[in-house]
Each structure stands twice: as structure tokens, then as C-alpha cells.
Amino acid sequence: MMREAKAAAKTTGLSRRTLLLGGAGAAALLVPGVPYALWRSRNFQRPDFNPAPLAPGEWANWSGAQRITPKSIAVAQTEADIVRIVKSSPAPIRAVGSGHSFTPLVPTPGTILDIGPVSGLIAHDTAARTATLHAGTILQVAAGQLDAVGLALPNLSDIDVQTLAGLFATGTHGTGRTLAPLHDAIIGFRLIPASGEPIDVTEASDPALFAAGKVSMGTLGVMSQFTLRLVDRFALHRKLTIMPMDDLYDRIEPMSHQHRNFEILYLSGTGKAAAITHDLWQGPISGRPPSTDEDTLKGMRDLRDQFGWFPWLRRRMSEGLISSGVHEDTTDRSWKLLSTSRNTRFNEMEYHIPEANGLAALREVIATMDRRPDAFFPIEMRLTHEDDAWLSPFQGGTRMSIAIHAPAEESFQMFFDVFQPIFRRYGGRPHWGKLHTLTTADLRPLYPRFDDFRDVRRRMDPAGKFLNPFTARLFEG
User: Fold this and answer.
1) DSSP assignment, residue 271?
2) Domain 2-34+235-430 has CATH 3.40.462
3) Topology of the domain comprising 121-232+439-475
4) Which of 128, 319, 356, 462 sits 20 to 30 Å CA-CA off 10?
5) What is the reported pTM?
6) Could you tell me which residue, 442 or 304, shows the higher pLDDT?
């Protein structure tokens, strides 16, 4: 939908100070002293959390949940470096960019290959709406460089520090029922396979390798560059509206059709959700004011810390502290609104549910989370259009993505014990970069071309040079 009406920049947040002051007064009036004191003294940090700085030669992912000391951490500055490292370094070799995968895709006893410095725009054709970029380019840099030459990716993920190689390899998607996941923009890529000899791949040159390579978790080799099909740069009108979740369930389908981008952040334990929409915008832009997301998240944690022991009380308190209505109304370039950086570190599980089952799954996930006194992170819901990459979670139909989170320092065992069985019961496919415990036997029924992918993988990497223990479990288990 194209919007041309005036939109003034407006952002308000759930104030942490308001929650602290309101919560303290309510606690004195409503909460029995002994249970409240016991809850307030609880330590939420998980026993195995390791806050220590990295030792020399050690690597950790963004959340800190994956740590390892491999034989070698090799840093590539150029594509020639990638070729040299692939040919000569100890296997298994696992490429890494910004380390934003929560699954153990990177940890290896062999070589971690950092391709982050292999970054930037290589070439572009504004008239043809195409561009070639190095695979280590982070999304924020790629989007900014493309914008400078009048181009844009049709959609973006919500975190802007992932490398192109990482987000394509894991099927990262963004939101919008008419918008395919990000890897659907790929029209060609350069791959350094186990032989170390670069291969330029398009759908015409090698249809099977192209279909397998768009989402491959780095198991076919190391990507060094991508050529992308793009659109003219564009601006968006963003609105964030708080409303009761019970009122929002019936509005999910019509709102997802009405707006170009639509997603929900359910505020766990409160009964309220943020409905976020983006629509095409023409005219002057206001620019987005500084985000209040981190303040809101701290406020949600304070609600948990004070009232999590009694879920109905937390919900009652939130009714008076979280106001319904429009909290953000702004316009800006697409890449400045769709993606953000995250300061609070967390671990995450996300499953992609067939749209027909999505609403039932979302209701059950929210109801289950609301019964948990330790939960406070928002639950994300997004819709994404289908594509044809063999291992794309969106292959074969539109899917509803539901994501749950836990702070990096707290336990996420509930992901596996409580929520993964719910996601699987509704036919969910896991996000490849987010926590799950599925194996070859679990995955084969979910992907019609799974064995075709395995055949291509073995053709490109017959000795398993790029298989670490985790990816071996996925494809050789």
C-alpha cells in the first residue's frame, strides 16, 4: 500500500521508571510479603553461563552460548585468502561472519574461517537493478551502499549486523506475506568448494547447485560473493500500535494482507502486543527517532522480576502501565526502519509453521509462555512468502514464523522441553540459525528435496571438509 499522507515522527516506549515506581507501590499493597521476598531474591542466571572474556584462540558466537578453541582461527582479507585457507587449513573448516547463529553451526575442532573483512559492493547496474557484493558484507553496510546507488533489497531481516553469507545460508527472512525470504534475491554466487577452485554459479550454469546453494549452512563450501536482483530504493511508513492480544488474533490475516510488512511482538505475561506495520511511502521523510526498544525490554524484565511469581498479578499490573494506542509513527528509508541492532544479548528458537496451522500454534505458544513466571521476552510473529530453494523453510508455501527468546545469561532449556514439541506438532520447520535439536531423520520428511541437497553436498564436498559435528547431525545423521 502506498501512503502519501503526512506522518510525523513519534516514538514512545514502555518506561522502565514507570514500571519501577508503579510496581513498588503495587507490591506494597497487593503482594504477600514472604512469597514476594522469595521471588525478588531469586537468581535467574543459569549455572553453565560463562561470562569470562575469550581466551587467546577461543571463539564465541554473539550470544555466548557457543564457545570453542579450534586448531586455527584464520581471517580472510580477500577471496584469494579464502582459497588459500580452504586448500591448506585443518578440517573441518567452518566459515563465520558476525556469529549471529544460535545453533552450533560454527564450532569446529579444525579451522574457523572469518570472512568478515571480505566486504563491500563490487559492482552494480542501477538500470538492470542488480549488484554484486562480497559475502562478508554485513546487512547494514550492504543496505547503505545499495541505497547510495539508488537500489535496495526488497526486504530485510530485523537484525542488521548479519553478513550476507550468514543470513542467506540460514534462510533469514524478514516479514511480509507477499515478500520472499532474503535469499530469493540471489541470481548468482561464487563458491569455493572443497577443491579450493572458485565456481561461479547461476540457475542456468548448474540448476541443482544453485537451488542447493542459496540455503546451505556453509556445507557446500565458502561463499565469497553474491549477485542480487534488487529494486529501486524506497521509503516506508512505520507504525507501532499496542493493543490487547485477544483483539489482535482475528486481525492478523486482514492486517497481513493490508500492509506490505506486518509483524507482532507479544509482550509476554501482559496480554498486550505491538502490531508493527510498514507501507510504501512517497514524500518527505521524518526520520526515525531514537529507539526505545532497550528501555521497553528492561521494563519487561522489571515486571518479571517483581511480579513473575504470580502471573495474574503481573498481567493486572501491566494493564495500568502499558497504554494501548499508537506508540510509533515515522517514515524513513526502508533499510533504516526494517532492521536494527540489538544491545541486549539473547538466545532464540524460531519455527516456521504452515500458514493454515499458524494461528493455532501462536495461540498455544502465547498461552504456554504466559504460564511461565520466568518469561519476559517478547514473542515474535511474522509471515513470509514461499520460495523454491531446496532447504528454504518457506519452500512450498507461505509460513508463519514464531520466535521465542531468553536472555543470554538465563536458561533456555524450556525451548526444547516445552516449545519445540508444540512447534513440531503444528508442522514447523526450524530456522537454520536458531536453536533446535532436529536430525536427518526429523528433517527429511519436512523437505521434499532434502536428499537431493545431500547428493549435491556430497558432490561438492565428498570428504566432509565443511561438516562440523552439528552439520553432520543434520545431513549425515
Assistant:
1) T
2) yes
3) 3.30.465
4) 319
5) 0.94
6) 442
